[in-house]
Amino acid sequence: MPNDDAFRVSFHTQQVGDIEVFYRQAGRKDAPVLLLLHGFPSASHMFRDLMPLLASQYHLIAPDLPGFGNTKAPKRGQFYYTFDNLYKVIEGFTEALGLASYSVYVFDYGAPVGFRLAAANPHKVSAIISQNGNAYLEGFSDQWGPWQAYWREPTAANRDTCRDSLSPQTIRDWQYATGADPSRLSPDGYTLDIAYMARPDAEEIQLDLILDYRSNVAAYPSFHAYFRTHQPPLLAVWGRHDPAFIPPGAQAYRKDLPNAEVHLLDAGHFALETHAVEIAQYIRDFLSRTLKPAA
């Protein structure tokens, strides 16, 4: 039986080049590793409920991406906020920690980062859990118009239109509350995200990433090729009421991964905020059949 320390979340930093990556971890260090990659506009705090639920069997590591949370990164102009660069930092982070084998949990922005990581290191990635982490055109809702306009024409006017995506009201009412049971939705997550967004230069960093999100769509065929070639075990556990990434995106994994397991929850985009217990159960069942957990 693990001791109480296995359930305790601890907080650390790891230098990767010029970037001081903040991360939280839990579980025994000799247990199978599950790397947790957060989304927009959040940080590793989104895993605060999930980590203790899995810590008895897995070593959980959740970094804050550059430009998010408590990771200290250079200013714009000194560091270019693109998804390729986020991936390179996270790859360097895994190498600095000596992670030779791990599963990866991807959500939202964490998906294109995690899929770049997996495609470049297929021998290291044992399994993938995608929680509203998209890799297919079928997964886009009809709410992407302003972002897609900015991708096509990266003008100052189109950039300003995308600022609405960063407003406190959008974060709280659209990203978090849509499709979520209000009695189960704690204000802690969106309140912290809104505070992060109010920091100097945060909006401009996020607008840079919104523009570069088009690079993820361009990379989808390479992700699909990785899936088809390496057939990683994949669990898609999806909030069915997500206003950004709709359920067909979860089902689409089966085009390239016929054995993918897909579960739709009565939840929104930030499904962990309301369904951490249910998601943990799916993960435990999936990984128990995919990996050998710690004794």
TrEMBL record:
Q: Organism classification, top ranks?
A: Bacteria, Pseudomonadati, Pseudomonadota, Gammaproteobacteria, Lysobacterales
- The answer to keyword Hydrolase applying to this record is yes
Organism in which the protein naturally occurs:
Xanthomonas arboricola
List, for all copies, the residue spans of the domain called AB hydrolase-1.
32-275
Q: What keywords does the record list, in alphabetical order? A: Hydrolase
Among its keywords, does the record have ATP-binding?
A: no
The entry lists its GO molecular-function terms as:
epoxide hydrolase activity
Q: What is this protein called?
A: Alpha/beta hydrolase
